[in-house]
C-alpha cells in the first residue's frame, strides 16, 4: 500500500423505530392467527405441532431481519456500503466514487433542502436517528439521480472532504 492511500471503515447500527415495532407486532399477530386457524380446522389439528414449529421458525427468521448494520468502507475516493443482517449476512448495497457526488449536505441544514429533494432512488443507510453527522448526498448513477443518507464519522468525512471540498455544504 502506498503512503498516500486512504482507507477508513465505519459500522453504523440501525436503531429500532415505531415502524419496526409495528411490523414485529404484525408478524407475531399473523403467526398467532395461523396457529388459531390450524387449531380450529379439524383436518389440521393432527399437524398442529408441525405447524407451530413452522410458525415459530418463520417468526424468528423474520425478527432477525430487523437486526441491521451498515458498514461504510472508504478507499481512495471509493465509498462502498454494505448491509449486514443479523451480524452474519453481508450484502453490497452501493459502490460510488465521491467525485460523482453532485452535492453533500447535512440533513439538518434546511437551506439546501431543495438541492436534495429531487431523486429517483433513495438509500437510507443511517442509524435512523437524525444526528449532527447525518448527511444527504446526491449523485448520478445509470442516468438516475440517487439520494444517499448516511452518517460518516469524522475520519470518513475528512477523507471525503479531501476529495470533494467544493461539493460539501455546511
Helix and strand arrangement:
Elements: E1 7-13, H1 18-40, H2 48-64, E2 68-75, E3 78-85, E4 89-97, E5 101-106, E6 121-124, E7 135-141, E8 144-150, H3 154-163
Parallel strand pairs: 6-8
Antiparallel strand pairs: 1-2, 2-3, 3-4, 5-7, 7-8
Helix pairs in contact: 1-2
Model description:
The structure is a single chain. The protein has 170 residues and is of the alpha+beta class. Helices cover 29% and strands 33% of the residues. It has helices at 18-40, 48-64, 154-163, and strands at 7-13, 68-75, 78-85, 89-97, 101-106, 121-124, 135-141, 144-150. The strands form two sheets. A four-stranded antiparallel beta sheet has the order 1-2-3-4, covered by helices on one side. α1 (18-40) runs antiparallel to α2 (48-64).
CATH class division of the largest domain: Mainly Beta
Major β-sheet annotation: 4 strands, antiparallel
The count of domains is 2
In CATH, the architecture of the largest domain is: Roll
Shape: elongated
The total count of helices amounts to: 3
Determine the N-to-C terminus distance: 33 Å
What amount of the residues lies in strands? 25-35%
Helix and strand run: EHHEEEEEEEH
Count the E strands: 8
Stretches where pLDDT falls below 50 for ≥5 residues? none
What structural class do helix, strand and pairing data support? alpha+beta
Helix content: 25-40%
CATH topology of the largest domain: PH-domain like
Overall pLDDT = 89
Question: How large is the radius of gyration?
Answer: 21 Å
Strand order of the largest sheet: 1-2-3-4
Amino acid at each position: 500500500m502506498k503512503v498516500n492511500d486512504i482507507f477508513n471503515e465505519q459500522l453504523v447500527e440501525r436503531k429500532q423505530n415505531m415502524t419496526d415495532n409495528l411490523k414485529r407486532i404484525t408478524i407475531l399477530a399473523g403467526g398467532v392467527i395461523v396457529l388459531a386457524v390450524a387449531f380450529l380446522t379439524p383436518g389440521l389439528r393432527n399437524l398442529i405441532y408441525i405447524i407451530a414449529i413452522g410458525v415459530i421458525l418463520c417468526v424468528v427468521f423474520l425478527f432477525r431481519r430487523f437486526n441491521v448494520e451498515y458498514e461504510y468502507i472508504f478507499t481512495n475516493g471509493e465509498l462502498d456500503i454494505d448491509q449486514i443482517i443479523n451480524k452474519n449476512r453481508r450484502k453490497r448495497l452501493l459502490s460510488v466514487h465521491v467525485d460523482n457526488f453532485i452535492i453533500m449536505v447535512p440533513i439538518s441544514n434546511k437551506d439546501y433542502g431543495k438541492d436534495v429533494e429531487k431523486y429517483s432512488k433513495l438509500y437510507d443507510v443511517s442509524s435512523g436517528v437524525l444526528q449532527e453527522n447525518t448527511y444527504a448526498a446526491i449523485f448520478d448513477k445509470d442516468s438516475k439521480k440517487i439520494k444517499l443518507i448516511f452518517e460518516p464519522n469524522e475520519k470518513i468525512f475528512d477523507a471525503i472532504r479531501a476529495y470533494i471540498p467544493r461539493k460539501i455544504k455546511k
